[in-house]
Amino acid sequence: MSAQSPMPESDTPESRAAGAQPSESGLNRELGVLVGFDGSELAALAVRFGALEAARRKTTLTVVTAYPLPTMIYPNMASIPNEPEDTKAEKEAEKTLAEAVELLRDHPGEKSFRTAPGDAAGSLITLSADAEVIVLGARGRGGFMGRVLGSVSTAVPAHAHCPTIVVPHHATKADADGPVVVAVDGSDTGRVAMVTAAAEAAVREAPLEVVAVLPAGEEWLYWYPELELSSEVTGRRQKQIATGLEGEVAQLSAQFPDLEVSSSVPVGEPTHTLVEISARAQLTVMGTRGRGRIRSALLGSVSRGVLNHAEGPVMIVPS
């Protein structure tokens, strides 16, 4: 992928070397915090959020604006434009990117700005292999595309090589001093999300809450092995899950001895419960998919539902 920068400071050997240093997370990925920017208000919110993330992690902040490559099929010589369409598209992307440059004028850390030819989601997914985390607004200028989330903020978390944080327009309502909350369900994906969330909480110097939501009826063949539904069975299963969760939390505490960790097993509809929790969390962490009915789905129904309705930033951790 080619990449260009409108600012000389963003592609100097010094900035590349600084970006290659291990950050607070212990990762060594030169792009650091990668933010997708399209000039929308939500993208500006994502840039500001990304700047805080980069400062917290002591790593590089990289802002990318993608632009589509035109087909450039002309019926005759007269229809050929004076300026090549791909050159024009790149110039427009650089104008958009200049808005991000202005937004980050006072950002003290290392920063990089680049344009990327091609589909926005595809460009970010490719770049994610060299990033610690991606930050996106919940929806950009592309509109709804038939979904509550924009197409980019839906596709990137499902395919990225690193965690993706999606910032909703009302993220400012979330508790910036609240805990980091991670949703688990006993799956390997949930365990990866739990360890990632612990590292996030450690960097943020925040407590970690590990939450396993027990559905009140659906998918009961997994959650209720006794094959009967009653308040007694629900309470018994809740205690069993809580006991197992306490064991996993003990192992996590041994790995992160300075981290304050708690766990809970609320009973309710998972998406609704986690959306409510997201309002008091500074970050809600989830895996791409868990034990849902459609296990092959790249984004499970709960992860997708929480992304659609969360009251605060949500991190999706790839499995």
Automatic annotation (TrEMBL):
InterPro entries: Rossmann-like_a/b/a_fold, Universal_stress_UspA, UspA
The protein, known as: Universal stress protein
Domain UspA intervals: 33-168, 179-318
One Pfam family named in its UniProt record: Usp
Homology family: Belongs to the universal stress protein A family.
Region (Disordered): 1-25
PANTHER family: STRESS RESPONSE PROTEIN NHAX (PTHR46268), UNIVERSAL STRESS PROTEIN UP12 (PTHR46268:SF6)
